[in-house]
Hints:
The chain is built from 14 helices and 15 strands. By secondary structure, the protein is α/β, with parallel strands linked by helices. The protein folds into two domains: 58-300, Type I PLP-dependent aspartate aminotransferase-like (Major domain) (Aspartate Aminotransferase, domain 2, 3-Layer(aba) Sandwich), CATH 3.40.640; 301-361, no CATH class. Strand 1 and strand 2 (32-35) form a beta hairpin. The radius of gyration is 21 Å and the shape is globular. The chain binds pyridoxal-5'-phosphate. Residues 104-106, 109, 138-140, 190, 194-195, 223, 225-226, 251-252 line the site of pyridoxal-5'-phosphate.
Amino acid sequence: MKTNELIEQSSKYLCNTYNRYPIVFSKGKGCKLWDVEGKEYLDFVAGLAVVNLGHCHPNVVNAIKEQAERLIHVSNYYHNEPMIELARLLCENSFAEKVFFCNSGAEANEAAIKLARKYAKENLGPEKFEIITMLKSFHGRTMATITATGQERFHKGFEPLLEGFKYVPYNDLEAVKNAISEKTCAIMLEPIQGEGGVNIPSKEYVQGLRRLCDEKGTLLIFDEVQTGIGRTGKLFAYEHFGIEPDIMTLAKGLANGVPIGAMLTKDKFAGTFVPGAHASTFGGNPLAAAAAIAVLQTFNREGAVKKEIKEVCPSCISTVRNIQKEDILRNCNIVGGYLINRLKELKTGFDFIKDVRGMGLLIGMELTFDAGDIVKKCMERGILINYTNGNILRFIPPLIVTEDEVDILINTLSDIFMGIRK
Ligand SMILES: *Cc1c(COP(=O)(O)O)cnc(C)c1O
């Protein structure tokens, strides 16, 4: 079917929840995508910071193929090998000691919220249920996670929201100090706000939050759904700040496009999730777990994944033996630095560019006007970029992107900016 027919069918049969661009994609490889007409695109969206290793990375494709032929699903009444292996890898490469698996970022945050509330109720007092979150945050689209999200536009029409959430400005320690009370059980934030406009907090702020939580017996929850799995140049963004959260959530980049979510925490807090307390039918699904194992194993040891894989997972071993390691973090830092410098160069030439900021390959460019047109113009020229909060262009390519590919983006942007300079 041709694009037009497909789009007609799409609007006939799908809920109209997205303002989709009129492209139907059918193939991807590395940083490239092809639509059904065969037109090629350079992808600086990466499925919204999901395909961190690039489209159809052979390690992930092989892991999925092998696992699909062996076992796709069993119930959580039983164990399965990839789930155990993935949990071990995540714990051995982070602050965490326990993992709960689910299927999306919102669900991982839902688990974090439930764990924090139950832990506080059982250990800190029955009145401790309030969670402080940040303005301009984004935590997902379930009822609890839209409530946690500090942006009214996500709340509209769905009220009444969940009780017990309080919003404060991001990167403002005083505001948190003033908001914290006897009722507070947790502070929840993204270590870098993605959807809210690529907002980067100071090290002092994040360390201040950690100290405040320690003093008050409050849990610190990091939503690393977007920042996790190498996106900011470290395996997890909390590593930039010299502190550890009590709970961390992951999803987007974890299985390079296969749906998965994870809530990671310490034994101390995990103990509150007793049998029956929380569950997910698909959580820890062997197919998704096998893909995520392949993702973590692809990161070069020097960069991130420190521990050798053990023989606990014979079904994973065959996959792992064939894994081609790559310096994902190194490339992310080098090319991320290059991209941010080239964007800053552009800024000196166009006064409608207000700011360029980012970490690793999570980079934003703030304009003085709505960025929607720029995104469309790039798309017409075969480059996919994204914008958020109206006027902020967001660059979140696969972490394997090259400097040559960055040059193509910069030349195109420069050309488009020339055309709109008044
Ligand atoms: C994308 C995102 C979510 C929501 O993830 P879903 O998988 O869409 O539920 C939550 N938090 C952050 C920081 C995100 O970027």
